[in-house]
TrEMBL record:
One Pfam family from the record: Ribosomal_L31
Name by which UniProt lists this protein: Large ribosomal subunit protein bL31
Function: Binds the 23S rRNA.
Keyword field contains DNA damage: no
SUPFAM superfamilies: L28p-like
GO molecular function: metal ion binding; rRNA binding; structural constituent of ribosome
Length: 76
């Protein structure tokens, strides 16, 4: 390995939006995440967070429903 070109690799604190924290190794001192294994629906078996994301998708589709983004319209 070449000297003085690699970032420092050391302890890192990971903080989740749910309040869970844990230590790992990384090139940065702190990482903030929105979902971790404690609050992710796949691990908890709860579907509450997925429903709120579905609502955001419906809102997006409703907002941009009439825009064709430069594509030709389909002829009937």
């Amino acid at each position: 390995m070449k000297k003085d070109i690699h970032p420092n690799y050391g302890p890192c604190k990971v903080s989740c939006a749910c309040g869970n924290t844990f230590e790992t190794q990384a090139t940065v001192d702190e990482i903030k995440v929105g979902v971790c294994s404690v609050c992710h629906p796949f691990y908890t078996g709860k579907k509450g967070r997925i429903l709120s994301e579905a609502g955001r998708l419906e809102k997006f589709n409703k907002k941009y429903a009439g825009i064709n983004y430069g594509q030709k319209e389909a002829t009937e």
